[in-house]
Amino acid sequence: QMTDLLYTEKDLVTSLKDYIRAEENKLEQVKQWVEKLDTLTSTATQDPEGFLGHPVNAFKLVKRLNSEWADLENLVLQDTSDGFISNLTVQRQHFPTDEDQNGVAKALLRLQDTYQLSAHDISAGDLPGECVCVCLIFAQIVYLYKLRCVQEPYDGRRAASSWVRSPTPEADYYHTELWMAQALRQLDDGEDSPVDKVTVMDYLSYAIYQQGELERALEGHHGGCSNWTPPHQRANGNMKFFEFQLEKQRKVEEVEEVEQSSGQKEGTARAAGQTRCPDLSAPRTRCLRGGDTNSFCRGEGVKMTPRRRSRLFCRYSDNGRKPHLLLAPVKQEDEWDRPHIVRFYDIISDYEIEKVKELAKPRLRRATVHDPITGKLTTAQYRVSKSAWLTGHDHPVISKINQRLEDVTGLNMDTAEELQVANYGVGGQYEPHFDFGRKDEPDAFKELGTGNRIATWLFYMSDVPAGGATVFTDVGAAVWPKKGTAVFWYNLFASGEGDYSTRHAACPVLVGNKWVSNKWIHERGQEFRRPCGLSEME
């Protein structure tokens, strides 16, 4: 759908060019008319009586003023924008919404945190992987929306608490500071922007203030906003507010010092709701959501010992002489030992991939998850992708894929869920989760009537230049997308108990477009199909 938006915009540009040509043609006609009359009137006004003494000149003057100027008026009033406006109206129904724009902005912040990218690298398009990036000048200004508040100008008649509106829960002052600082650097480098420097500095100072660094916020204002010409009303109002708060804070500290020296208990002022400004010399850190998951996504996972690695093998397998695999055994590679994760190579063809994507695209909808309380499907902020479901009735290719999975795994696909196709766009991810229902989720798959999810099969249908790994967060394993391959693992032990080491996540896509499809295989029908092992892990 993002690809479709490119063609939508291209069509609008073509329509806009047509409008410009029509306007230029109209202006050219007006210009020719003006040039002709400019010469004529200049000559005529040198000797008006002599000019009008000629009967033809008198006739033409009357004719021009009676009819030709009316024609010119109609030409000037002619609206050539109808075609463009009509096209824009039609295409607007496909435009992204405010929610989409905010979602893309949040995705960039997610990528920045996960892959430890600087605001400078992102704004310059300097990202890992091979890509062709067209970076809009000052695109980072969109992050102003993260403030989610409008600072009101200083008014001495109001209470201090009302000078600046309270931020909403969505405010993200940490990232606002990073991006406003980058905006200042680009302004200092001479880039053009519709946003002036003092506005950026004002937002920067306010973001710093909201993080508790009042003195540093005031220094920023004094350094760049106080002497701005013409005066900036909001910036000046905020500066006075910061000065008021700083003076108030100093008075509280003086009271605390007096109380301490007189032996009184500390913290009276703090109990009244005051806080000290943090040590500005201390290094600034931020606890990022995701913890170890982010490091695994960067490829900093657990490294296997040589002894463990020596137990992983590559092999050709016909899965116990399955008829479909005798002449064309599948290529297997052990990715991890516990849980046992196996990758299959050349397991799906380019034709099959394109057919699956072709069938899925019209059906793509916001991906859902199982609500552990209701057992029903619902959307969630921790899963950002679009998905569609395909059955064997949709096309013979899907039936062929389902049969292949049954041959390779030896498991019954009759009780498996439909083939789910997922597309992860900008910053698309799926935070750590289990595929199987835990003990505290007894009704997770009750409505399906096929038991728990015994195993997961995951096709990679595209290469991803950067990011997009599947990481198993409890063991530190990372599986990287490779087009035409698939990975398989059991979610349950042979005893039917859940394997908690299979907790996994889909890392945000940093560069590229990630297509996957998966099959969740359920317990029913597998009673005598799963290979027996000497331990629960097999």
UniProtKB/TrEMBL annotation:
Its Gene Ontology molecular function terms?
iron ion binding; L-ascorbic acid binding; procollagen-proline 4-dioxygenase activity
Keywords from the named record: Dioxygenase, Endoplasmic reticulum, Glycoprotein, Iron, Metal-binding, Oxidoreductase, TPR repeat, Vitamin C
Task: Give the region (Disordered) as residue ranges.
Answer: 257-277
Main location (coarse class): endoplasmic reticulum
Please name the Pfam families in this protein's record: 2OG-FeII_Oxy_3, P4Ha_N, TPR_P4H
- Subcellular location per the Swiss-Prot or TrEMBL entry: Endoplasmic reticulum lumen
**Does the UniProt entry include the keyword Methyltransferase?**
no
E.C. code: 1.14.11.2
Q: Can you name a GO cellular component term?
A: endoplasmic reticulum lumen
Q: What does this protein do?
A: Catalyzes the post-translational formation of 4-hydroxyproline in -Xaa-Pro-Gly- sequences in collagens and other proteins.
What protein name applies here? procollagen-proline 4-dioxygenase
